């Protein structure tokens, strides 16, 4: 079974702070990491391989430094890694990104002997759109199951999975090939083994350009992106109100008085 | 497509550095330099430069104007579960009404399901002029491909100008497929939607970079202009039972409705259901809680208040609370009448998910915690002392 995992390198945003004077992001010292949701995708791919045999091919689209994310994925058990990188991709929105990745998956299928499952994290922590996964399956014209929280079984060319819903979950059976986007409930990503880290260090990473993946230049980057950013601004925050001070007893009495109407009203 | 600094005009003032959301510009020897590996060609720096020293060349195709006069109507994908139209869809019909009035056009709603006549009527009451109903037994539950094919066919047939959907699990999965197929842009999780008065196009505003920055996005050369919006971002419109509208039944062939995946079972986990989005009062905990057991203290307060329990990303990532409780940009957006934040510092990604709450009470040890900037009432103190005291006090006050 050949499994393709798509990942993205993102800034470690939990520590992003704003400079209160200029209202801009303080980016100094912000690390790049694998999108947290993609860690579950990598783990899901590696576990499927361990059960079914085959290979995990990890693909990322990004600048040259995204190679570090691919090496980390190899250390977790991915077998092949591809960096899809080209200046022509700059300014890609979710349409162009999913198109580019779908071209790369088609090429990977040729190079590595087809694919059965494509796995993505449910969304990236920097863009938060959750659109690229389903975008890829649409470009590839394969079925999709989003928000997968459990892969139950693989049998006779179909996979049974559980898809998270707002109320619980759906049980869905999907024919292969299929694309899954996965949520954090699906697994606990492993810590890379020493052997894995050694392998990652020396692994060869393929670098593919727009030409290599046979993409139509008009569908790439900014010209392939239907959406454009026209304005960027700092959000207006609501202003703070009243501070309640005193001994604990006084504080809770004041708060209870202030809130009684809100609660009962 | 290219971007460059006109070195002769650049004064090294760093205005562009501050504007760049990608951190791609640095000033070296009093001249700005753009790192093209980081630059996303978004163009935010161009108007920021007072000296017109940044040149962004767009390809001719992007500048070309297309005629979209045959595209009319502001559409909403009306999401239903068990035949009941979801509240986010009504919120969007309310917003669509406002946008349609600005454009002088109609509001359309697409309702796919089985036995959904009542829902169609309700959508009219909320402000829809035309409801396109696709009622088939096999469409009772959401199916990615079948629903996409229906929406795509209707878009191609009626050519709406704008298409909105809730940023729900269904909405995000469905609209992504539709947007690719009809070759349109899709802006996720918009917090603001408006019409540009001159160009008559949809201005879609959403948080970017974890909510630190807002970006306004347009899709001028494609129709429909598509966007998803989270629950509770817009208000519920008042329902007018006497409002009249057209209900158009659309029929589809079996092949139109084919779907490669099979839905085997729908499981509801009622006990674990946290209806944060619907709750009137939310008691939420953050990093300062320290472990899962301490959330019991919040549950006790929540029980007295009839509230739901929320959690910050820090608490969820630490494994203290399940993801279904998470409030914030990567969790739920909530807007209850009362939000009590206990030991939450107030990372911006959390604030964007709760700052529309009517009254916010923040309890935190750190007087400089950003949460106090949005709090209606702020208490600097130890949550382990104040929360139990509040629980006790409210028990008395509310006679429980």
Summarize it:
The complex is a heterodimer of chains A (265) and B (400). Chain A contains six helices and 15 strands.
Characterize the structure shown.
The complex is a heterodimer of chains A (265) and B (400). By secondary structure, chain A is of the alpha/beta class. Helix content of chain A is 30%, strand content 30%. Chain A has helices spanning 36-52, 67-75, 94-112, 132-140, 194-202, 248-264; strands at 2-7, 9-11, 17-19, 24-26, 32-34, 55-61, 80-84, 117-121, 144-155, 158-164, 168-175, 178-182, 206-208, 228-233, 242-244. Chain A has a nine-stranded mixed sheet, with helices on both faces. Chain A has a two-stranded antiparallel ribbon with strand order 2-5. A two-stranded antiparallel ribbon of chain A has the order 3-4. In chain A, helix 2 (67-75) packs antiparallel against helix 5 and helix 3 (94-112) packs across helix 4. Chain B has helices spanning 15-19, 45-48, 60-63, 87-103, 117-126, 144-158, 169-181, 295-305, 313-317, 348-354, 383-397; strands spanning 2-5, 25-28, 31-34, 54-57, 74-78, 80-81, 84-85, 107-113, 130-135, 162-166, 186-190, 192-195, 202-208, 213-218, 225-229, 246-249, 262-268, 281-285, 308-311, 338-342, 359-364, 377-380. Chain B folds into three domains: 2-63, Alpha-Beta Plaits (2-Layer Sandwich), CATH 3.30.70.20; 74-249, Rossmann fold; 276-397, TPP-binding domain (Rossmann fold, 3-Layer(aba) Sandwich). Chain B has a seven-stranded parallel sheet, sandwiched between helices. A five-stranded parallel sheet of chain B has the order 19-18-20-21-22. In chain B, helix 6 crosses helix 7 and helix 8 packs parallel to helix 11 (383-397). Chain B is 26% helix and 26% strand. Chain B is of the alpha/beta class. Chains A and B meet through helix 3, helix 4, strand 9, strand 10 and strand 11 of A and helix 6, helix 7, strand 11, strand 13 and strand 14 of B.
